[in-house]
Amino acid sequence: MGGAIIYPEIIGTLAYTVFLVVPAIKEEMAGYAERRAMGEEVGYRLEWNLVINKALEKCLITMDICWDDGNMTVVGFPTKSWKQLAQFTHYKNLLLLPDRGLIDVDTNLISPVAAQEGFLVKGLDKGLKQLANKAANIPPDLNVRGLMTFLCELINLNRKDITNGHFLS
Fold first, then answer.
1. Residue 17 belongs to what domain range?
2. Of 127, 114, 95, which Cα lies nearest the Cα of 8?
3. For residue 116, which of 40, 27, 34, 8 has the smallest C-alpha distance?
4. Which is deepest, 4, 35, 53, 155, by most CB within 10 Å?
């Protein structure tokens, strides 16, 4: 993608994973799907970052996927999607889908084709814990303390184990 920030069309959850539908990555994902189909392992590193506009007192969360071929996919989450994003803390994996058609609208199930066209990103939960730490340590002079407090509360609230009130490790 060359560093451009793209936005998900759909954020959803299944029994054991969360999924994003991001049509802007369809061509890019086709290359990685082809590599996987040929038996090649596709390496990546997942990073969560905060993009802060001090003048506008706004903040964007980015999920940066650094691929083994040197490319980077950056998915952005504006503040209006943070409540959905906080649900990610319940899941270890993310299924990145390039097409809304891979989800059956009647049953809300993922099509079997998604296994070939989508990409499973692991370690989602660990990155969000690091994001909460970054948010907690943002300097006050950036004028986004209220947003950072909101973000930390969302992530930490969703990390609590409902049965015993403890944070999950």
1. 5-159
2. 95
3. 34
4. 155
Predicted TM-score of the model (pTM): 0.78
Q: What are phi and psi of 56, to 5 degrees?
A: -95, -5
Rounded to an integer, what distance in angstroms lies between the CA atom of residue 114 and that of residue 164? 36
Q: Which residues contact 122 (CB under 8 A, 6 or more apart)?
A: 92, 93
Check residue 166 and report its DSSP letter: P
The terminus-to-terminus CA distance of the chain in angstroms comes to 33
Q: Are strands 93-97 and 18-21 parallel, antiparallel or unpaired?
A: parallel
Number of domains in the chain: 1
Q: Which helix (H) or strand (E) holds 67?
A: strand 58-67
Q: Is residue 75 part of a domain?
A: yes
Please, what sign has the CA dihedral across residues 87, 88, 91, 95? positive
Task: Give the ranges where 10-79 is alpha helix by DSSP (H).
Answer: 26-37
126 domain residue, yes or no: yes
Question: Do the domain assignments include residue 35?
Answer: yes
